[in-house]
From TrEMBL:
Subunit structure: Homodimer. Heterotetramer of two MnmE and two MnmG subunits.
Section covered of the full-length record: 219 to 377 of 456
Binding-site residues, K(+): 12, 31, 33, 36
Function description: Exhibits a very high intrinsic GTPase hydrolysis rate. Involved in the addition of a carboxymethylaminomethyl (cmnm) group at the wobble position (U34) of certain tRNAs, forming tRNA-cmnm(5)s(2)U34.
Subcellular location: Cytoplasm
Similarity-based family: Belongs to the TRAFAC class TrmE-Era-EngA-EngB-Septin-like GTPase superfamily. TrmE GTPase family.
Ranges of residues in domain TrmE-type G: 2-159
Entry protein name: tRNA modification GTPase MnmE
Phylogenetic placement of the source organism: Bacteria, Bacillati, Bacillota, Clostridia, Eubacteriales
Superkingdom as given in the UniProt entry: Bacteria
Entry binding sites for GTP: 12-17, 31-37, 57-60, 141-143
Residues binding Mg(2+), per UniProt: 16, 37
């Protein structure tokens, strides 16, 4: 079936864009509106090296007044707890938020890969901090489709 895998992170960092890149088609809705993904979107994907992941794309982790989005965030947290592998997506082109740092720190004892996305927009300088916390960290651009080989390697090392 594939390794149960959760894609998590705050809204708008590119979780669904990464999901679609890995799936090879437009599985999840992508917009620049935070809170677009609400329900969990699942897909079985094969990484370049042959590893099969059962991926769940999730709502962006944040506190929200929108009752439907709030249910999605609760589901996202549940999926995060249940998964064997976590892909923690961060916007590597912007400074990390407190929530980003909390997420990274919460994953230190688990099979997890930090993904510094949006590398096409440049780098904020927080990469060193992330690498100090999590052994497995890759920089990529989900929109441009670069860095998948590095992701494949990092996932295999994290498992
Ligand atoms: P999500 O809320 O984390 O699922 O983020 P989305 O995948 O919906 O993407 C949010 C916005 O960021 C969209 O406008 C995407 O096109 C954009 N985006 C996603 N990945 C990248 C990337 O690698 N580079 C750039 N420049 N934009 C990206
Ligand atoms: Mg999304």
């Amino acid at each position: 079936e594939g390794i149960p895998t959760a894609i998590v992170g705050r809204p708008n960092v590119g979780k669904s864009t990464l999901m679609n890149l890995l799936a090879g088609y437009d599985r999840s809705i992508v917009t620049d509106i935070p809170g677009t993904t609400r329900d969990i979107v699942e897909e079985t994907v094969r990484l370049p090296g042959g590893l099969v992941l059962n991926i769940a794309d999730t709502a962006g982790l944040r506190t929200t007044d929108d009752p439907v989005e709030a249910i999605g965030v609760t589901r996202a947290r549940g999926k995060l707890e249940q998964s064997s592998l976590v892909l923690a997506v961060l916007d590597g082109s912007a400074p990390l938020s407190d929530e980003d740092r909390e997420l990274v720190l919460s994953l230190r004892e688990r099979p997890a890969v930090a993904i510094l996305n949006k590398s096409d927009l440049g780098q904020s300088g927080d990469e060193d901090w992330v690498r100090q916390q999590l052994t497995h960290c890759v920089t990529l651009s989900a929109r441009e489709g670069t860095g998948l080989a590095e992701l494949d390697t990092a996932v295999r090392e994290a498992l």
